[in-house]
Design brief:
- The protein has six helices and 27 strands.
- The chain has 399 residues and is of the alpha/beta class.
- The strands form seven sheets. It has a five-stranded parallel sheet with strand order 3-2-1-7-19, covered by helices on one side. A five-stranded parallel sheet has the order 9-16-10-11-12.
Length: 399
């Protein structure tokens, strides 16, 4: 292989570039990104960076000893690809043809079209998003967070710490249920309430009131009206895969891959948030939008790209963490389908405990709140159920 092109200049793309050099690739390495910034760390955007505790320089993911010797094409991004010739077309009219391609284009924040053009409505995915939102965290101001996912919850936590009046609206009866299950989702919900956040669950938004290109208030279907100075929308993310339509790469809620990151087109792999790898524990494709997945899976995909006979490697259970109201929340595994939950240490009322999810006698997931040492020990014990065979075609995706 003479030329390797990586489309996406964030953690997954950088991890793939590092893995390529570490595994002996000495050819031309091209890294393409749509932002003008070199790779930076995204998790702090809704935490320390938003609060001004760290600077843009602190977010940099590169180190002096990377030795990538890469060509960087930033600020444009890819608009299409011909999978047969492995040629990538860029916004500025350039094209890059490569022997191998890594797709690492990530996701973007899901938008609410009804709020388009509103100057006090914010999404949080990029450094620029955080820089625009940070000055709005003013003591006494009213913030409404639409969506009680982890990014929305972290923003709510940051805003509350600044003395804002924060309301978080969730459309399900209990927030965080998809990740943590209903019981532990309720525990995290209580953490927000205990720290002054007005959490409204099971809510349906009936109407946004606006004036002078700003949202002034929200009416819920039950008749409640909420005045707001700042609105943050955190309703999930959508994979950046539209540019691959017509490329020959199979798509379906993400870039469909086998369990080593290979797509259906030889010489093309996908990593990071946009990639739906086959997960043998559920027998379907699954996108994992977590930092550790972008970091760890890149090496497997590069191995599969550089060596067609690369042996299958087991996937580590997904892991994520979140900092909310001074509490470190850590989770590993899959809670879906668990039939028993045990509190192994601590007390949920104190928001310092460790909970283990079981399926039968096997621990399949673990949640820790302010229990980093014990969590790390239990994380190593998480057992994966017997894997189901990979499909002959790349099909269904588990969201």
């Amino acid at each position: 292989m003479d030329t390797l092109a990586i489309v996406g200049a964030s953690l997954a793309g950088l991890s793939a570039a590092r893995a390529a050099r570490a595994q002996g690739f000495a050819g031309r390495l091209v890294i393409i990104g749509d932002e003008h910034h070199r790779p930076y760390d995204r998790p702090p955007l809704s935490k320390d960076f938003l609060l001004g505790s760290i600077t843009a320089e602190d977010l940099s993911l590169e180190s002096d000893d990377d030795g990538l010797h890469a060509e960087w094409i930033l600020g444009g991004g890819a608009i299409s690809m011909d999978g047969a010739t492995r040629t990538i077309r860029l916004k500025d009219g350039q094209s890059v043809t490569a022997d191998g391609i890594v797709i690492a284009t990530g996701v973007r924040a899901r938008q609410l079209p009804v709020l388009a053009g509103m100057t006090n409505v914010f999404y949080l995915r990029t450094m620029a998003d955080a820089q625009r939102l940070a000055p709005k965290l003013v003591p006494g101001a009213r913030m409404t967070v639409v969506g009680a996912g982890f990014i929305g919850a972290e923003v709510a936590s940051a805003a509350a710490s600044r003395g804002m009046e924060v309301t978080m609206i969730n459309n399900t009866p209990v927030p965080f249920t998809a990740q943590l299950g209903q019981d532990m989702g309720a525990v995290v919900a209580k953490l927000h309430v205990a720290n002054g956040v007005d959490l409204i669950s099971g809510a349906v938004i009936d109407e946004f009131f606006s004036g002078d290109n700003e949202v002034r208030g929200i009416r819920l279907a039950d008749g409640r009206q909420l005045a707001s100075d700042v609105v943050v929308v955190g309703i999930g993310a959508e994979p950046n895969i539209e540019w691959l339509e017509g490329s020959g790469v199979q798509l379906g809620g993400g870039v469909l891959c086998d369990s080593m990151g290979r797509t259906n087109v030889t010489g093309i792999v996908a990593v990071g948030d946009c990639a739906a790898w086959f997960d043998g524990t559920v027998g379907a494709h699954r996108r994992i939008e977590h930092w550790t997945g972008a970091l760890e899976r890149a090496a497997l995909a590069i191995q599969a790209l550089l060596d067609e006979n690369a042996p299958q490697q087991p996937l580590k259970p997904p892991y994520f963490w979140s900092d909310q109201h001074g509490v470190k929340i850590q989770f590993a595994g899959h809670s879906t389908g668990h039939d028993r939950l045990e509190i192994e240490a601590g007390d949920t009322e104190d928001h310092s405990f460790l909970a283990v999810y079981y399926r039968g006698e096997a621990p399949v997931a673990v949640l820790g709140m302010n229990q980093p040492r014990l969590f790390t020990k239990w994380r190593r014990t998480i057992a994966s159920p017997a894997s189901k065979p990979e499909p002959t075609g790349l099909v269904a995706v588990v969201p």
